[in-house]
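S., here's the first fold you wanted:
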Amino acid sequence: MEQRKCYSELLFPCLLLLCFTGSAKAYKNYTVGDSLGWYDNTEKPTVNYQKWASGKVFSLGDFLIFNTNTNHSVVQTYNATTYELCDYDDALDNDTTQWSTSNPSNTDTQPVTVAVPLMKEGATYFFSGDYDGDQCKSGLHFQINVTHGQGLPKSLQSPEEESPSPASPVAGDDDSAPDTIIPSNFNKPKEEGDDMKTDDGDSHKSGSVSMSMHVTLHRNLYGCFVLLGLVFLF
């Protein structure tokens, strides 16, 4: 009984460690404002999005889920000035994105859910740009800091961020042309009879090499026999 209790006491911390380790490695979805959704203070007076974001750890690959309606927009920017002005009219395309583009209307609203991936490290700002920034000034804004975490998953990586593959050779491209090996006698063409002279010289050389190898082999065999004889004598 005591042995089982000891095992259970050891197993419980291990299970906790595995649970926390698995959760730390997973990408997360955050519902902005939780059950209150994404609305300004005129509709949800108690909502405070900066307070909601504080204490949370946001990483690359996570998603922010905005539950709202067509009368509220979702603007993401990396430009602090754009965020402070609550105006994205003069913002650059590479630092500001409007994720919902419906025309605002108080009379005809439809529920929408906007999912925004976190694709860049550092400070990231969110606000509503509808009604000339009035919603933004009425509490519909917050900023977060995005950490690297596990980095972007492959599904969110752009082709530029992936490792480039080696360029394939293109026909007619000088850079891809193979090296050309030039014979040493390229500027000295053979005359008739040169082949015969070369063959004769090669045959003499091969004959002398064969004779030398034969003599060396004979000497080695003779030495082996002498050593064997000495071994049998002693």
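And the second, which I think is the more interesting of the pair:
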Amino acid sequence: MFKRIFHNFSNSFNFHYSQEGWRYFYGSFYYISSIKRTWEASRDDCLQKGAELVIINSQEEQEFIRQYKKSAWIGLTDRVTEGVWKWVDGTPLTTSFWRSGEPNNYYGRNEDCVEITNNGGWNDLVCENEINWICEKKMAPLPWER
């Protein structure tokens, strides 16, 4: 009985967010932008939505994001200390999906922000570039997802 009630609640909750362009995956809702902005402007947009630039914590989450085949900002940066990659929530990078040869500060440019490319690999970019972005709003996983 509880599972059925909770399932009905979660379906209506999911419907609400999906109507606003969000997609659900294992305890989080994701918003994939249709316009392009700088990394900072993208982060501001996520914060205004009560979310944050996406933090990719697993191979499964990487594959979920990768299916959209869109180059987009993620919540990873080394702006504070060059070469020390941290997520926007302050946690250090532990699992990564860099493209071969990345990160590289291409041609000596100060590439402090990270995009997931349309083929799914990560690439460091100049934060002032304008590309799409992905927000993540963390929720608790549904009981049957645990």
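Why I say that: Strands lie at 22-25, 28-32, 52-53, 72-77, 86-87, 113-116, 122-125, 132-138. The first helix runs from residue 2 to 19.

Talk tomorrow,
H.
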